[in-house]
Amino acid sequence: MLAESALEIAAKLRRREVSSVELAEAALAAIEKTRGLGAWVEVSRSRALASAKRADALLAAGVSAPFLGVPSGIKDQESLRGHRTRLGSQAFRFLYAPLDGFTARTCRAAGFTLLGKLACSELTILPVIQSPPTRNPHDHTRYAGGSSGGSAAAIAAGTIPIAPASDGGGSIRIPASFCGLVGVKPGRGAMPNVYGRFDALGISTIGPLARTVRDAAALMDVLAASPGRFVAACDGEVPRLRVRFLARSPIVECDPEIAAAAEAVARRLEQLGHTLADAEPIIGSVDDFIPVMANLVAKVPLVFGMKRRVEPTTRWLHELGKRGSNTAALEAGRALGRRVLAWFGDTDVLVTPTVAILPPLVGSFAGLDGEGVFRAAAPIGALTAPFNVSGQPAISLPLAASKTGLPIGIQLVGRLGSDALLLALASRLMA
User: Fold this and answer.
1) Residue 89 designated active-site
2) In a 3-state reduction of DSSP, which class is residue 310?
3) Helix H segments across 300-406?
4) Residue 171: active-site member
5) What is the pTM of this model?
6) Measuring CA to CA, how many Å separate 78 from each of 88, 101, 207?
7) What does the pLDDT average to over 384-412?
């Protein structure tokens, strides 16, 4: 049941072929069976079943909502009424949420049965979840990615069909790639800016993790309060495009198997009539992004001994950000964004591997200090983070697999404001 697309499940619920309570029970059983993955950090059986019963009553009364009765969860970064908001950290383990945050409130209004909280990396910083680790359902010895790794692992493991997430450097696209899902980072302005208090640059955004492009688009419609807009875009016309292919970076050496998979997708677009050319690598380094990330982390209040409880990378970035200038960090971020947009030039769609390497083994970063972990993990986001600073829409599609059976995500990046075009193109590639 839960292995189907979220829209298919919603349709079955409306036809009364299955009940929301049955789905919630199945999801709770699947969560228990896959507990070793570390995808969920808190689940409330009583709240979930009560919500499911309400959904069944509304369905019986003919009430309509896009995902009425469909089970899902909320990333630990966000507030969910009656649950703690740990932000992936022991330092915030007692932070209780009496009210829903924007994402939970919006998802409830769309009819979702919210089962609990999904794991994320501490303060959503790293592209893997380390303590405790969130493991990849395709290979339990490897990471599921981050920061939205719990959300991706929960879907890939069959506990839920879809989930809202967030992306500040690849946090949706990276776990989508590692876990074999569709993950969309909407372009700047396409979604409500729920992180503006901490993120003046607009690097972070909410977005969907799903099994299909249409599911992802439907969740985008929910999050953006734009009924039908993004779903309709999936069927939109795709004009002849200037496509560029990139599988090189000064930050990471791309695995040849992954590069070949991405090039095959680019060649497929060429065969469909689009013009194709290779792109030169984006000139830059990890050091370009560190001041921006440190500035974001420094805005999180760590008081009353909380610094002692955070991970070394969080502590290092927080101290670095506190020593730096807010104005200088903001200008560095804006300059980096302008550099990416200038490099993108007249390209319509860029094709890259979502991640240039296969999912790292759990424990790969053990023994490193805070800066060492950040620099060792940074190559995971080498091909995703640039488009957070530029604000461009990007989507990861599960279009390939390694010889060992691990998913390989292929990233499509569009111009500013081209979310609809990317969804239309992605729909055709996934068909």
Assistant:
1) no
2) coil
3) 312-323, 326-344, 370-377, 386-390
4) yes
5) 0.98
6) 10, 6, 13
7) 98
